[in-house]
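Sample 3 of the quickstart, ligand fe (ii) ion:
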Amino acid sequence: MSKFDKRGNPVSYGVQTAVDSLDRVCDMLHAYQADPLAEVDKIIADHPDFAMAHAFRAGALATATDKAFAPEMIKSVQAAEALAPKANERERTHIAAVCAWRDGEWEKAAEHWGRASIAWPRDLLALQYAHLSDFSLGYSHMLRDRIARVLPHWNRGVPGYGFIEGMYAFGLEESGDYAQAEARGREAVALNRQDGWAVHAVTHVLEMQGRAIEGADFLAKGADGWAPNSMFAFHLWWHQALFHLDSNDVASALTLFDEKISAGGFAQALELLDGSSLLWRLSLLGHDVGDRWNDISGKWESRVDDGYYAFNDVNAMMAFVGAGNGSAQKRQIETVRRAAAGTGTNAMMSREVGLPACEGLAAFGRGDYSKAIELLLPLRAKANRFGGSHAQRDMFSWTLTEAAIRLGNRVLADTFVAERLSWKPESPVNRAWAMRAGKLEPKQAA
Ligand SMILES: [Fe+2]
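Result:
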């Protein structure tokens, strides 16, 4: 007989205690707390025919966008698929989503989860997987609007209401509505200080508005809420390091790299890309990062043939350029070129963004700043196509600004600096670039 989860969504599996256990595991994932995969494995061990548990596991592994997790993700997709005939319509929509993801069709996966959240607007898991897919696909407005669609079906009395507020806050932030994003995000944090995504949404508002000192303080004061048991902590520490960097506190940024961002040993791609992108920013500004480039480049090298997600490939490329590892740069470019010639969502991402980005970073690394600008400048318009946040993709603006200054091209340097100052006029990093640009010969043409 059908059961229901705690938000009233139908579940075909007939053991209510198992359904209740999955509810608790879903809550861990919604808050980015503890180890939901280890917990769902326990449920599956006792209930191997629980289709929704397999679909949960497949979705969690898929949306981590990490090839290292693909074999386990495929196992879960196969288990869920085998149970599809016994599943209900909602569960079959989840299973269709993870099948699409396994097949490299990430846009279709987002739409399946999105359809599930339209048909069952309190299906918080479908909504979260759609939200994470929207993030990986760079669908800024869908990060907001997919949540807005279901808001009439939610109120404070529905379990997990704060998670809806946190996701909506992040979508509002990525869509540029900072005031409403901050209000909604702070409300969600007040409801649950462990809600890593809500903390993240407020953090992004502070990042985008250049409120670096306030941002560092917000994360430091809230860390006793989210940091213990957070599986997302490395990324919030990365944001903390960016705040330090934008306050000219390089030592604190490096300490966070050593003690927090690298604390998991860079076991997953999400950690590696935060590590790379922090070191890239530090290096661009001329700070000595010691052996850290070699360490992280070594970790990325085992993934150089992945070609799984262009966003990861570009962050790997930063490490190879930073470490001066020419052979890995060459292999990475070959990998992305091969991915670009393939099929599925990542082929588009690799073609449109990944390949020119990797080639542009390699050009920057060999001091060919003119070539780097030629390759990277068009990406300022379309880098969203390979996903990530505005804050992450800000790397392109950083690199272009530094390249223009090193090239001695006053027109380009002034242009990129003007753009940066329009976002963050008080930023010490931006002001330092403005000073350097101002010392260049004014005659140089664009
Ligand atoms: Fe972020």
